[in-house]
């Protein structure tokens, strides 16, 4: 009898242990997503969606007050962010970062479409490019961000879509799509210098422009600026201090087509890779900066990829697709280590602008 009881007890113990193992057979996979927030501008419905990048869930949705929100930039001190609009006599809207509350807005002078803003290191001024009047020279507007009023303007090129500022605030680099050059502005003296996108002195600008410099990103050493040339399927590299184009890389062309339309760019925190959207190629392209070699051309299902950014830890890239003609845009998440698309998020209508911000 004792042997039978012992055998039953052992069998029962094995059964209980087995049931416990089945309840949790595998350890849960850790969430390695970077912490931060992703800000998506939906130009078609004048909204902004904010996502937690750790959980990839929407945590806020706001009306941008101004119509056609196109671009977002944070002040260096992080207290405020600014949204620019792509419309004639466009607007700049100011929001409080902590609460996402609207603070103020200002209308720019007639016929100026402020496609982007670059903010000085002291948080006092914003420089605005003007994406209007194709083929005609325009001016870079200087705004006092305390009063939200234009206080000066500097000579720019034609059809200026993007601009970035070095981290110390010493140089602004602006792309001039229709004049095939770059404007370098120096805030301390409010002076400008122009750099031809083609260093060949015999090159003559034509319409439509041969290169079409459209987007720009500055590396984290403030030494190089990478410029997407939409019409030439290239990215060209500017040595900021030397004010000279020093290198270039060809961007893959659409199979069976003639143009990929390299659009906006983001550089990883270690400066090892640049990622860019191709508006006509419907892809995200990555190239190594050390070799200037394309290492990935990642296809996207939604159309017109535009805004792009990279997480602070360099592990993930976020790309927004406008998806014209559809009720919703799409944001894709790309794993930098494997250069593969790992997730997507359905967002609002015509999602042009995108910005990642670390918590």
**Overall structural domain count:** 1
Low-confidence stretches: 1-29
Question: In terms of structural class, how would the helical and strand content be classed?
Answer: mainly beta
Any idea of the CATH class?
A: Mainly Beta
Q: In percent, how helical is the residue content? A: under 10%
> How big a fraction of the residues is strand?
over 45%
Q: Sheet with the most strands?
A: 4 strands, antiparallel
CATH topology descriptor: Methylamine Dehydrogenase, Chain H
Strand tally, please?
28
Envelope shape: globular
CATH superfamily: YVTN repeat-like/Quinoprotein amine dehydrogenase
Query: Averaging pLDDT over every residue, what do you get?
Result: 90
H-E order: HEEEEEEEEEEEEEEEEEEEEEEEEEEEE
Q: Biggest sheet: strands side by side, in what order?
A: 3-2-1-28
Give the second-level CATH assignment, the architecture: 7 Propeller
- Please report the number of helical segments: 1
What is the end-to-end distance?
67 Å
The value of Rg in angstroms is 24 Å
How would you explain this protein's 3D organization?
The structure is a single chain. This protein is mainly β. The chain has a single domain, classed as Methylamine Dehydrogenase, Chain H (7 Propeller). Helices cover 6% and strands 50% of the residues. The protein is built from 1 helix and 28 strands. It has one helix at residues 2-23; strands spanning 37-42, 47-52, 57-63, 69-74, 80-85, 91-96, 102-107, 114-119, 125-130, 137-144, 149-158, 160-165, 172-176, 181-186, 191-196, 213-218, 224-229, 234-239, 244-250, 262-267, 273-278, 283-288, 293-299, 305-310, 316-321, 330-335, 340-346, 351-357. A hairpin with an 8-residue loop joins β25 (316-321) and β26 (330-335). The longest helix is centred in the first third of the chain and has 22 residues, at 2-23.
